[in-house]
Prior knowledge:
Elements (H helix, E strand, L loop, with lengths): L3 E3 H10 L20 H4 L2 H16 L6 E6 L5 H8 L8 E6 L3 H4 L7 E3 L7 E8 L8 E5 L3 E8 L5 E5 L19 E4 L1 H13 E10 L1 E2 L2 H5 L3 H4 E5 L2 E2 L11 E4 L1 E2 L8 E4 H7 L2 H15 L5 H17 L8 E6 L2
Parallel strand pairs: 2-3, 2-5, 3-4, 5-10, 11-15
Antiparallel strand pairs: 1-7, 6-7, 6-9, 7-8, 10-17, 12-13, 12-14, 16-17
The structure holds S-adenosylmethionine.
S-adenosylmethionine binds next to helix 2.
Amino acid sequence: MSAVIPFSEFMADALYGPSGFYTTGGHAGRRGDFLTSPEVGPLFGAVVGRFLDAQWRRLGCPDPFVVVDAGAGPGTLARSVIASRPACSASMRYVAVDVSSAQRVQHPEGVDSLAAMPDGPFDGVIIANELLDNLPFRLAVHDDGWREAFVVTLPDGGLVEHLSAPFDPVPSVLPAVAPLGARAPLQDAARAWITEARSRLRLGTVIAIDYSSATTAGLALRPWRDWLRTYRRHERGDHYLVAPGSQDITTEIAIDQLPEPDAVRSQAQWLQLHGIDELVEEGKRYWEQHAHRPDLAAMRMRSRVSESEALLDPSGLGGFSVIEWSAG
Ligand SMILES: C[S@@+](CC[C@H](N)C(=O)[O-])C[C@H]1O[C@@H](n2cnc3c(N)ncnc32)[C@H](O)[C@@H]1O
């Protein structure tokens, strides 16, 4: 055996190392590898703009009002939030944060583009759309007790998995009884990230939007390929050890491993709370008034109908969780 590393280190290198998936340009988008809510179209950003206005007013209209888009990818959410011209625009400092320079070079004019979260304390909102699922996690495997998965690089370069001795003590989130071969993510990095983000805020909210399960046990009792997923060019990818760097590696978030949230809603509920239906109605009215001579604005307004269907779909993006924490 040569190098033996925890699965979390393998994942960090496969995504963010020198030949990592995100380092070499893997990204969200119709021409990318997977479709996220901001990439569906500008409607998602317009609803986020309304949410930002509600938060800005709740905090007493601070200036600057710092909006951190954490794990911003190519900056699509930034573009649509700014284009929606929220009332807080004049006070808003929009900070797009991404570890990958291949993503940062695509960030739009008018945002601060950073590799790491700005120092606090500041007043504002930190929003992480599909970031937590990409943070490296440790992998637990049930095989005569719960053990940790390590990745071994063989002398010929091949990769195999090696299991540690049983955990002692067993992490409390893991179910006592599980089938042979059951797996579960141990999301220390996601928990630490939320704690760190909250500590940067003097006043405000951290919001994470992701696919999730209420409990780790809920994940452990499902087939692991359901929640430990790989993606490449809009298709499910190969086993996670195959061709590292060529595919995304992602997990559903186990909410019971994160700091206690103030609110958890489905994405559909959250978008409705922040006015998606009103924006869709406005789009329909605009289209009806301009359908005889449609311009680009009219086409965009009409597309709100199909965008909202995708964003609210309970078996798709609408079923994601929107998890909120106040400053802490
Ligand atoms: C799945 S993409 C989501 C992109 C975008 N938020 C969206 O919804 O389309 C995750 C992004 O998070 C970035 N990322 C991963 N870890 C990060 C970290 N610790 N800080 C900032 N960005 C990170 C990746 O480089 C990648 O661009």
